Amino acid sequence: EMARTAGNELATTFASTFEHPSQMGHCRMWVSPFQRTRQTAHAILESPAGEWVSDVKESPFLVEQDWGLFEGTGIDDARDHYPDEWRRLQKLRDHQGKFWARMPMGESCFDVCTRVSNFFSTTARDRSPKWFKGRPGIDNIIVVSHGVTIRSFIMMWCNFSPEWFEVNVNPPNCSILHIEDSTLRGYLFPGYGKNGQALDVEDLAIAPDPSFIEILEGACKGEVCDPYHWTNKDTGALHEFFNAIDDDRNGVISIQEAQRHLGPHGSSGIMQKASENTLDFEKMLELFKEDCLENPPPIAYHHILSVATKVAKGQLSKADGEKEYVRLAELSFSNNELPWMGRE
């Protein structure tokens, strides 16, 4: 029943995008050859989504992670059943990281990523019309697989880092994730929780890649970043941020409070440059303009300040503010809006 509901949602998405199966072209469903994924695929094909699927293939590259000795017991019960192997796995995780640590007689998450990447050559072949006489290449595929395998698929396909894998969790049962080209668009259908309860897509957050922002900020500290040019849009965003902090409307704010809401990605030098603990708007604007020349931000300051304003107003938590900051950075990157874009 869950899979049929997911199939209904999938059909609705296809209809809103392509209107009719004939306009979609050849759509192939790839399935892990495990029994539970075969059952899921069968239920989807019995739903309205089945009208959009041209054919179905299986691939052993899409099976779930091999848990080795822990297969069937679950990671939570493995400590009691295999205490020695459990302790060894924990040492490996502490030393190498969870992503790299291999299950006893099984696979690590890295092994799953390597295995899944072997599947990509098949999809590349399917997209080439020269391999199949009489029909165009396959541009749309549906993948029915398992939690760790899907997370590994996304990581490798979208060129995310192992850090991204660690900060994200497996997608819920029967959930649907959308990838366009190499861009992860998010959840189309939230799926169901462990107890079978329907989930809300608003409650499912995909954390950004932590290594991405480190690369951006590292580049801005090096010689690859052009000088930052302050704009009127930045001034407007700074004024809105200032007013969000200036609760009593006395025209001054605390430097420490400003830095707290800005977080680690804001102007790091304003506290050192200010001669007093409070600032009026004109002085704050002067310090920001001066500091951004010495410490270019990884993205436009109006983006940074818009997130900081939402945090200051309580519209975003600090954690969600960090995610929004990275999302804006990724958007700027894809639109060629980063400070060093266009440099020879």
TrEMBL record:
<dbReference type="InterPro" id="IPR052765">
    <property type="entry name" value="PGM-Related"/>
</dbReference>
<dbReference type="InterPro" id="IPR011992">
    <property type="entry name" value="EF-hand-dom_pair"/>
</dbReference>
<dbReference type="Pfam" id="PF00300">
    <property type="entry name" value="His_Phos_1"/>
</dbReference>
<protein>
    <recommendedName>
        <fullName>EF-hand domain-containing protein</fullName>
    </recommendedName>
</protein>
<dbReference type="GO" id="GO:0005509">
    <property type="term" value="F:calcium ion binding"/>
</dbReference>
<feature type="domain" description="EF-hand">
    <location>
        <begin position="233"/>
        <end position="268"/>
    </location>
</feature>
<dbReference type="InterPro" id="IPR002048">
    <property type="entry name" value="EF_hand_dom"/>
</dbReference>
<dbReference type="InterPro" id="IPR013078">
    <property type="entry name" value="His_Pase_superF_clade-1"/>
</dbReference>
<dbReference type="InterPro" id="IPR029033">
    <property type="entry name" value="His_PPase_superfam"/>
</dbReference>
